[in-house]
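Course exercise 7: structure representation. Students receive a sequence record and must write out the corresponding structure in token form. The form below is the worked example handed out in class, using Nuclear pore complex protein Nup93 (779 residues). Read each field label carefully; the graders check that inputs and outputs are placed in the correct fields and that the protein name is recorded exactly as given.

STUDENT ID: A-19
EXERCISE PROTEIN: Nuclear pore complex protein Nup93
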Amino acid sequence: MEAEGFGELLQQAEQLAAETEAVSELPHVERNLQEIQQAGERLRSLLSWVSVTDIFLLSLDIFHISQRLESLSAATTFEPLEPVKDTDIQGFLKNERDNALLSAIEESRRRTFLLAEEYHRESMLVQWEQVKQRVLHTLLGAGEDALDFSQDIEPSFVSDAGVPGRSALDSVEVAYGRQIYVFNEKIVNGHVQPNLGDLCASVADSLDDKNVSDMWLMVKQMTDVLLVPAKDTLKSRTALDMQMAFVTQALQFLQNSYKNYTMVTVFGNLHQAQLGGVPGTYQLVRSFLNIKLPGPLPGMQDGEVEGHPVWALIYYCLRCGDLGASMQVVNRAQHQLGDFKTWFQEYMNSPDRRLAPATENKLRLHYRRVLRNCADPYKRAVYCLIGKCDIADNHGEVADKTEDYLWLKLNQVCFDDDGSSAPQDRLTLAQLQKQLLEDYGESHFSASQQPFLYFQVLFLTAQFEAAVAFLFRVERLRSHAVHVALVLYELRLLLKSSGQSAQLLSQEAGDPPMVRRLNFIRLLMLYTRKFESTDPREALQYFYFLRNEKNNQGENMFMCCVSELVIESREFDMLLGRLEKDGSRKPGVIDKFAGDTRAIITKVALEAENKGLFEEAVRLYELAKNPDKVLELMNRLLSPVIAQVSAAQSNKERLKNTAVAIAERYRTQGVAGEKSADSTFYLLLDLMTFFDEYHAGNIDRAYDVMERLKLVPLSQDSVEERVAAFRNFSDEVRHNLSEVLLATMNILFTQCKRLKGAAAGTPGRPQRSMEDRDSVRRW
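STUDENT ANSWER:
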């Protein structure tokens, strides 16, 4: 009978072994009967130290919870249970209760996934918006034609990538940067604000570049129109008196420039010029004509004055901006000029250089009847200047250069609209601007070969934003464009885009037709991007100009740019200051630019936190005196590493040193954060000590630490108390509970083996061994 029983048992064992071997994932254990018996004896002797009751207490309520979950047959799928018969009331109620639980679980799971997807989507949108802004700044920063690869590419005098460890600024940018530093130092120290135009113009003197020098002379001339900065730039720029002032300043610049040109020409050819007589514009022009017009020309009318055509003398005196010299010529030839002397006297005495409507109509009528087809190009040009007529004639015979053409057209611009002028005889500033910017454009003026000339054409017609945007596209001239924009911005003459995402040059709804706006924020950010990583101090100087600007979200652009600059350059200590050992803060570069440095540091810290740079954010929050955020982030950083084995230069070792330094500072200074974060922080530090002792093999010390922490129940009486306390722990502590339990059990097991190996009742046994044995028994 026993043989049959053992045979059946053997058959079942073989069948079970075959099924086990079919499962390849399970490890194979091969033991004979003697080894199995010895293992059983060891297990029995180990369990003799632990009562069955204690084992059940250790499991807490896990067994009951698992039973309740397993009772739900749809626990893995969360699908509703099948309905039961209507007559089974108890089953029906149980089924309804289970279905309600499953529905709640499923709804919670669905909401959690939807919320996670929404957070992920919002995060991706924010990141994409930031990336998109960078791409747009790079690709569209050069204006509407930035992606036209067919255009001629201007040579760059500066390499795109700076030498590692060295400045990315070239000599011109360094020279401008010094002047910006001087300007900002005066402002932040409360001194009288210097003239930024004069500071930037001094750079041109050191460059020995006539084009740059002339450019800054023109900028200073065109911006010398206001004594008090305008509150509304658009209203001020489009006002009649302001536009008249711009035209007047442009004419003065062109006239002074031409007079200097005639002087250079005359003094460079003194023998041919035959300069003599009373010094003045008349003698200068007469000598100039000895070079330019060495003999009588066909078509000249109304005689000569001292061997030169009278109308040529009048024209060139006007071109040099000297009405008195022109009147001197008119007086000498008055008998040959008819009514022109009377008209010219009225023109000369008019404050706005405009004839009375009746006189102007007479002159225009005389011009159309007699002079339109006149063979003397200088006479036609003078009449068109005085009477502002025949605006379609470009007078190419006398105005053979762009500056001459521009001067002649600016003289013909009208600002009044009295209705007395025919449309063909009326040229407004807006019409001239459209003609130069849109009708002719860059190709007509060969802008790629002569960038300063086209810049001058736009700037002298008060198209400042278009001029700056064009010059900014020429890489070797970009620094000049930026600083011209800064001068206009400080004088409140710059029309800025209302949105940060706008193109570099744009039009906005509601603006007059020829008004263009410059994206000033993008201009500065594009300029500083080249050197902000190598020269953050210089970049900060430029960002200070954005202290009153807001982005689309209403955030201060100075703070936003500083935040990005600090994170990109990682120069936290230099820019924002650093924390000394005694808890005091050593000022950084930012301190002289902002009174409330804590707000800026907090902004940078928040940006670093949002980008996942938690360790940097901890340093910044501590610098901003925000212990709550410091402890919150430190808890988040410490939680994943406290159970790891410490090693030199490891992630845990670095975080541990940071945490210990923070703890020492806070305890010395009496600083405390929010109660929950504060207690969690110090508990995590104690747990780190526990694991360090455990991994180092200091079992008794580790046990003492755990005993003092009272984190897990070490006796039957403390189970309920520890379970209740566990609910109050933060997630950072709870996530490590499994590691804590495992380490504690290993400690107890080690103590158990050590105590079992000791001889029972041996004299002189330490009292600590007896206490350990009692503790292990309780477990």
